[in-house]
């Protein structure tokens, strides 16, 4: 089953979110408008808006309120990707030229800033101080995570704990906030929105670990970028950390640098895939997925709960 079928009962609301995203990023500046639209049209799973809407179904769901939160969370995600591509000097994302590649780094940085500011402006429509505090804290943590990722590049002596802390900030917290803020916007009681936060956090961890596995197991066509790109850029992920427990692989991985020939990086990818590290990473992802499903069982039964369960299972088992 395709992921969109899992929440097909939200189709009309998702279409409204997409339309609102387009309307929201129409800046007065032609360049900002074009760069923002380019990022939006590159696509994406829109997982964060979907989680916002599904979480809202546990309370007083009003799409005219929910859309502000859903669009804001997607814009924050978009803005972070635009900035990421500058930091990583990436020319492609999802098989399309990045804003940095199509224009330049300065344009990309200001586009990301514009998208962030637009998200915060949208959130002013939500008259709930707790929601603003959660969002602000989340953005601070995401920024700290981005800085840590820069510091950790090509740092081959980092630990699994370092990696988990990094992906918590990079991915999991924004997904957790999507679930919690969607619930808060719908006046869901505190005990429920805190559980939705935990669900989002565990799903987000599983999601990122799976992404990091796919960087080694999926094809370039599926990824929209060459396999092993994360390692080539110095990002040490779960499969690499597990593989480096073998001394002979560690010695090879420690030779990696951004200008390494593709034939050399291909050999290292092959060693990692043969080491058992992929299976260990899958097991780690499944641990987080099972925690997410356990939290979900504590929530009231409704159509949204089933959709959240189906999406979580899809995220944990996807092949690309």
Describe this structure in words.
- The protein is mainly alpha-helical and 320 residues long.
- It has one domain: Farnesyl Diphosphate Synthase (Orthogonal Bundle).
- The chain is 72% helix and 1% strand.
- The chain contains 16 helices and two strands.
- The protein has a two-stranded antiparallel ribbon.
- Helix 9 packs antiparallel against helix 15.
Order of helices and strands: HHHHEEHHHHHHHHHHHH
Oligomeric organization of the protein chains: single chain
Strand order of the largest sheet: 1-2
Cα distance spanning the termini:
14 Å
The secondary-structure class comes to: mainly alpha
- Any low-confidence stretches, pLDDT <50, length ≥5? none
Round the mean pLDDT to the nearest integer and report it: 92
The fraction of residues assigned to DSSP E strands is: under 5%
Q: How large is the radius of gyration? A: 19 Å
Fraction of residues in H or I helices? over 70%
> How many DSSP helices?
16
CATH architecture: Orthogonal Bundle
**CATH top-level class:** Mainly Alpha
Main sheet specs: 2 strands, antiparallel
Number of strands: 2
Q: Would you tell me which CATH topology applies?
A: Farnesyl Diphosphate Synthase
- Give the CATH superfamily: Farnesyl Diphosphate Synthase
Taken together, the total number of domains comes to 1
What overall form do the CA principal axes indicate?
globular
């Amino acid at each position: 089953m395709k992921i969109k079928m899992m929440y097909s009962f939200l189709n009309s609301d998702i279409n409204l979110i997409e339309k609102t995203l387009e309307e929201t990023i129409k800046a007065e500046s032609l360049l900002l408008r074009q760069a923002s639209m380019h990022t939006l049209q590159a696509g994406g799973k829109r997982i964060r808006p979907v989680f916002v809407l599904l979480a809202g179904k546990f309370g007083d769901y009003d799409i005219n309120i929910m859309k502000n939160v859903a669009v804001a969370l997607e814009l924050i995600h978009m803005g972070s990707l635009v900035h990421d591509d500058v930091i990583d000097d990436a020319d492609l994302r999802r098989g399309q030229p990045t804003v940095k590649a199509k224009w330049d780094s300065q344009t990309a940085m200001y586009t990301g800033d514009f998208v962030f500011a637009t998200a915060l402006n949208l959130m002013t429509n939500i008259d709930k101080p707790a929601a603003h505090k959660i969002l602000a804290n989340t953005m601070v943590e995401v920024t700290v995570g981005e800085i840590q990722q820069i510091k950790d590049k090509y740092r081959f002596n980092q630990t699994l704990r370092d990696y988990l802390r990094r992906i918590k900030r990079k991915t999991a917290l924004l997904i957790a906030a999507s679930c919690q803020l969607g619930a808060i916007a719908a006046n869901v009681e505190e005990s429920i929105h805190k559980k939705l936060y935990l669900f989002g956090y565990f799903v987000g961890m599983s999601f990122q670990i799976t992404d990091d596995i796919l960087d080694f197991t999926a094809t370039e066509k599926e990824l929209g970028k060459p396999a092993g790109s994360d390692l080539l850029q110095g990002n040490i992920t779960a499969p690499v950390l597990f593989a480096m427990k073998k001394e002979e692989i560690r010695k090879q991985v420690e030779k990696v640098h951004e200008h390494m020939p593709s034939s050399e990086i291909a050999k290292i990818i092959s060693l990692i895939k043969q080491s058992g590290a992929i299976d260990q990473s899958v097991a780690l992802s499944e641990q987080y997925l099972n925690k997410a499903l356990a939290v979900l069982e504590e929530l009231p039964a409704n159509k949204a709960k089933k959709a959240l369960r189906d999406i979580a299972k899809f995220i944990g088992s996807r092949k690309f």
